[in-house]
């Protein structure tokens, strides 16, 4: 029994003995009993064990119910999907996460890291999920590297967004790039560990002796800087991200998006294979916010309504 509970019990006994003697003290004792009850309720809430009124709280694993937090790994360099503004991680993904949090009754706590280390953060338990514009594909689901070698146990995806990829070039498109085929014999910049790097590698194979040189960086911001400086002719990114960069960087004077979207696919919230209860709770929450309209509101805020999915799916990427 806690010290706080002992004080309340003692006070209750004292009040009982005085009830027969003094009515006024009985009233005061009743008020004191109520106060002690309030303190106990408060302690329960502080301990994270109080009942939560959120619709889907009970669907979560016990450890997350207790902590009240879902730890989210992200690479906050992909505006408008996730980026840092005023010391805070903001964007499409954080807004969707906030809506999910209301359904689940917990806080989604974002921590930024390098993209190619995000899945590892799930395997080590450092993060509970990844929300970082991550493409859902079989390679990631099965834990395979580019050569099909098993390097991890893989992850499950709750698919929440659909998008193609687009080329981002220097404003004015000085190299006349309009498609991936136009990149043969040139140098491109890209973020390491992304699906875009895979796309460039596939194109390099296609280019053959007319060599496509790929410069890979830890962040997409570095790749953008390389293109802006003229050291590379193009970067590759999800269409919403490329369009946002073209619109905002240098007041719209640094970059432009060229060509058509290619490789349209699903983005997913990544969850460890052994956390199926968490995965299923997140899926149910996503379906709920799609149904109640808060999902659409989050996408509209960032002008990416065209990338909405109609319902939540698991591992639907190819």
Automatic annotation (TrEMBL):
What InterPro entries does the database record attribute to this sequence? Answer: Solute-binding_3/MltF_N
Signal peptide boundaries: 1-35
Q: Which residues form a coiled coil?
A: none
The UniProt keywords, alphabetically, are: Signal
- Which CDD domains does the entry mention? PBP2_MidA_like (cd01004)
Q: Does the keyword Signal apply?
A: yes
> Which Pfam families does the protein's record reference?
SBP_bac_3
User: Do the record's keywords include Signal?
Assistant: yes
Domain (Solute-binding protein family 3/N-terminal) ranges: 69-306
Q: What is this protein called?
A: Solute-binding protein family 3/N-terminal domain-containing protein
Top-level taxonomy:
Bacteria, Bacillati, Actinomycetota, Actinomycetes, Kitasatosporales
